[in-house]
Write a structure and sequence with these properties.
single chain, 483 residues, alpha/beta, Rossmann fold, Dihydrodipicolinate Reductase, domain 2, 2 domains, 9-stranded mixed sheet, 6-stranded parallel sheet, 13 helices, 15 strands, globular, binds 6-O-phosphono-beta-D-glucopyranose
Length: 483
């Protein structure tokens, strides 16, 4: 069966920066199914040739040495352009005709990728429905929705309902690009493809879990969007929650879309909702110094650019094991890591009372920039009495010199092939907002915990370090451990 990927929002940044380079890389790797074509739709008036030329330049710029003109030449023949307005019914009718023509009247599976401004998602789904483009009686019809998926529970629910009027849930693919990162998938393999980790993966052996998504960048030119969003909406409700779900979920019965997502959703259902004093005690808010002077940001903006939260997953596996989630802009470096902090050994056998006290083991799963895992364990200092020191075992996920695929490569291919395992389901998105909404509301109310400012290029507010110390724990403030 042939495939057609229709990208709405074709002249936008996401298309040139991520989608086309990813599809081209998949083609270069020889993994793009034969007879796959890409059709861009937006209001700009391009011909196929003009769009191809523009994409050749942007793709070469974004991919650098990975771009080569001969494979681009082949790939670009698969690309077409159709001018159209996402709010104009008649444009969808002409689009339907163009797609038929390109497909030569033969059935082809289609993926409609909605890469427009979020305000247009509902309209896009509705117009596709009206033009009969969602009818999957002769071939698959899928819709991919970019993030953000709503800005709170109410808007997410409304968006789900509007889409559901046209597409069944199994036709809907909600992107969270963190799920397309290789190491996130590797967590599943680490946990469920080995027998040595899973027996320890519970409250009996784990003291707490830290999930950090640190970004060195500041908001830059995205001030206008960011100031309305803040770190809780921009990073927690989606990416950090996805990382938490994958870390905390039970083993699915099978590796298919519904089994995996059923288990992920159970994690969110078990997250204890904040009540009363929790809103102040279970988190730290911060804003980097200079944020209010960024372009598009209100002069006295109350938006947090850093947050740390302590969540509890109340089930048999995790009861009593806090999950610390933290993310911020303007931090020391770009690193995403999940740190499993194990309990201390139950009995001190070596060097009691001396400096070399046994320390807890730690498993660091580094998601990016380089991807790998590091195990921290105690070993003896050679040629000394029973003095101990912390040692590390490193595993780098990619072989030296091998480049890892971008998350969009995997996700676009999965959407073309109809595998929704790495996409968010409607209940998952709504539950995530259900947890996040009350925290966002409390942090915008007069009873909000204090906003701590922090200097750029550190690990966030000092208060965050102190907060952990009060709980007898320390953040793993380390820039990428695997290079
Ligand atoms: C996006 C956020 O979803 O994720 C950005 O809107 C953030 O603010 C980005 O910078 C981080 O993604 P990555 O893949 O670079 O970690």
């Amino acid at each position: 069966m042939a495939h057609t990927m229709v990208i709405f929002g074709a002249s936008g940044d996401l298309t040139s920066r991520k989608l086309i380079p990813a599809l081209y890389r998949v083609h270069q790797r020889g993994r793009l199914p034969d007879q796959t074509r890409v059709v861009g739709v937006s209001r700009s008036q391009f011909t196929d040739e003009a769009w191809r030329k523009q994409l050749a330049e942007s793709t070469a710029r974004f991919l650098g040495q990975e771009f080569d003109s001969s494979t681009w030449g082949e790939f670009s023949q698969r690309i077409h352009y159709h001018p159209g307005d996402i709010q104009a019914e008649e444009d969808f009718l002409t689009l339907a005709g163009r797609l038929e023509e390109l497909e030569g009247g033969r059935p082809a599976d289609r993926v409609y990728y909605i890469a427009t401004m979020p305000q247009l998602y509902e309209s896009a789904a509705a117009q596709l429905g009206k033009a009969g483009l969602a009818d999957d009686s002769s071939a698959a019809r899928r819709i991919v929705i970019e993030k953000p998926f709503g800005t709170n529970l109410e808007t997410a629910r409304q968006l789900n309902q509007s889409i559901a009027k046209v597409f069944r849930e199994d036709q809907v693919y909600r992107i969270d690009h963190y799920l397309g990162k290789e190491t996130v998938q590797n967590i599943l393999v680490l946990r469920f493809g080995n027998s040595i980790f899973e027996p320890l993966w519970n409250r009996s052996y784990i003291d707490h879990v830290q999930i950090t998504v640190a970004e060195e960048v500041v908001v830059g030119r995205r001030g206008d969007y960011y100031d309305r969003s803040g770190v809780l909406r921009d990073m927690f409700q989606n990416h950090l929650f996805q990382l938490m779900m994958v870390t905390a979920m039970e083993g699915p019965v099978k590796f298919n879309a519904d089994s995996v997502r059923d288990e992920k959703v159970k994690v969110l259902r078990a997250v204890r909702q904040f009540q009363g004093a929790d809103f102040a005690d279970c988190g730290i808010r911060g804003q980097y110094q200079g944020y209010c002077q960024e372009e598009g940001v209100a002069p006295n903006s109350p938006t947090e650019t850093f947050a740390a939260l302590r969540l509890h997953v109340d089930n048999w596996r995790w009861k009593g094991v806090p999950f610390y989630l933290r993310s911020g802009k303007g931090l020391s470096c770009r690193t995403t890591q999940i740190v499993i902090d194990f309990r201390e050994p139950p009995h001190l056998l070596f060097g009691e009372g001396k400096k070399s006290m046994p320390q807890a083991n730690r498993l660091v799963i580094q998601i990016q920039p380089a991807e790998g895992i590091q195990i921290h364990f105690q070993s003896k200092v050679p040629d000394q009495e029973m003095s101990l020191r912390q040692s590390q075992l490193d595993f780098r996920f990619a072989s030296r010199g091998q480049s890892m695929p971008d998350s969009y490569e995997r996700l676009l291919l999965d959407a073309l092939q109809g595998d929704a395992s790495l996409f968010a389901r409607s209940d998952e998105v709504e539950l995530a907002w259900e947890i996040m909404d009350p925290i966002i509301a409390a942090w915008r109310s007069p009873a909000a915990p204090p906003m701590h400012t922090y200097p750029v290029a550190g690990w966030g507010p000092e208060a965050s370090t102190e907060w952990m110390q009060e709980q007898n724990r320390t953040w793993f403030d380390v820039c990428p451990v695997i290079h």
